[in-house]
Amino acid sequence: xxxxxxxxxxxxxxxxxxxxxxxxxxxxxxxxxxxxxxxxxxxxxxxxxxxxxxxxxxxxxxxxxxxxxxxxxxxxxxxxxxxxxxxxxxxxxxxxxxxxxxxxxxxxxxxxxxxxxxxxxxxxxxxxxxxxxxxxxxxxxxxxxxxxxxxxxxxxxxxxxxxxxxxxxxxxxxxxxxxxxxxxxxxxxxxxxxxxxxxxxxxxxxxxxxxxxxxxxxxxxxxxxxxxxxxxxxxxxxxxxxxxxxxxxxxxxxxxxxxxxxxxxxxxxxxxxxxxxxxxxxxxxxxxxxxxxxxxxxxxxxxxxxxxxxxxxxxxxxxxxxxxxxxxxxxxxxxxxxxxxxxxxxxxxxxxxxxxxxxx
Amino acid sequence: xxxxxxxxxxxxxxxxxxxxxxxxxxxxxxxxxxxxxxxxxxxxxxxxxxxxxxxxxxxxxxxxxxxxxxxxxxxxxxxxxxxxxxxxxxxxxxxxxxxxxxxxxxxxxxxxxxxxxxxxxxxxxxxxxxxxxxxxxxxxxxxxxxxxxxxxxxxxxxxxxxxxxxxxxxxxxxxxxxxxxxxxxxxxxxxxxxxxxxxxxxxxxxxxxxxxxxxxxxxxxxxxxxxxxxxxxxxxxxxxxxxxxxxxxx
Lengths: 360, 250
Fold this sequence. Notes:
The complex is a heterodimer of chains A (360) and B (250). Chain A has helices spanning 68-76, 306-313, 319-335, 341-358; strands spanning 2-3, 35-37, 42-44, 52-58, 79-85, 95-99, 107-116, 121-130, 133-142, 147-156, 161-170, 175-184, 187-196, 202-211, 216-225, 231-240, 246-255, 263-272, 278-287, 294-302. With 360 residues, chain A is mainly beta. Chain A has one domain. Chain B is built from eight helices and twelve strands. The radius of gyration of chain B is 18 Å and the shape is globular. In chain B, 36% of the residues lie in helices and 31% in strands. Chains A and B meet through helix 2 and helix 3 of A and helix 2, strand 7, helix 3 and strand 8 of B.
């Protein structure tokens, strides 16, 4: 075990990037006071098919980062857990990654790389579970013509802290689709970020989150259209219930002057199921060229629609069942995009459970 | 044999200018197998009557009673009223995003019948109900009322009427927005439900045209929050000829 000692600029909470985050609950990940464990929790859950390897190796970062926690992770270790899918490998079955048992009295700093060779096609699922203090620098490299569906499930136990960046670098004509699910943990802060490095790529960032009493979940998107003719879609849906449940969604989309032909739309919807919960939702579209196909955003935060509940109840459906139907329906649009029935079912049951526990 | 009894019903709604009384003493008795038409001009309170009986939270009961076979309907929650045997076919059925018609119908049938219908017979039952209302069975996998045309929404209401088998149904302007063919199909659905389940019907409408397909036993003229005249089917013909002008000025 060692302490983080390098001098970094410690966030105070006044910075734009940190203004919503409860720094005191980050267990020292941001200011270097966390005690660092050498554990390396990411594992492959079953035998890998041919064309796929999972090794720990020294790799330089794929992209720069201005996030202080990512900097600290990189300063701590050159070693990366690297899942590599070779060129032209087309996988039908998803690859499942999971976590070994963690701990709450020390922190893990994790670097992960997922790389797809040219024209590779894969689905990768990362199941984040257990008790842990985890900071993670996860980078995804998509070679030309490759296609990745990337599903992360934050199903941590209630005291866990997870601070991560999930950064995808998308080359020519590559297709990236991510589904970020956050339902467990004390503090979860994820930066799903995307960088296009050649024309013709597309990124679809989808997400669902459900925060109950005391939980803080932040999803801070950044999509960088730095090349022409790339397409991005963002759609995150969240529900909140209980005192001091707090979610943050930030959608930064930057269309640079060279990014002609960009097509982007971002959307965030929040459902407030009780008093005392707070949803922050900040879409932010920065456009440096007018020569685009489309750019837009929408953000809504609302309560149960009384007319929907009345309609369902007028057919004999009890209030709690009507609420469950409405909430399931609200999330359904994103959940079905996961495309793996067992996970979809588990997630819907988790949503039912959270709703029931919240007594909403 | 069921009886819905409405006695001296006064209902108000909250507005910016305080509570406004909309129903001013409604008396009406509907028995199984009977069809009552309530006709009246816009704003006379017809829909308020329908939604008050169903228990919409927007309306406050000021005075009076509504009972179904002696049980106090006004004390029941919205879902309890449906389970007691009341059904409201809405003028503007509500969209429920992400909830499929098949899931919705099965959940409702389970709630009303007290147990989940057997899957095999249920699928056939739904298919038959949809086909008899000229609805593509593909509607079962669509979200409730989402993207439905006005006519499709009304047909979906009558599919529910047939599947959920209430004792007394209130049809709130089910005829509005329907073309002649759809009006006939929807009316046939109501008549089937009457025949199969000895349904009592309270039919709320502006126009007499639906009464050519669904024959009323009683016609009530509604104006200014209460019933101003009652009669048989011939009263509808009189309204067709003279309009509501006689009643509105009263």
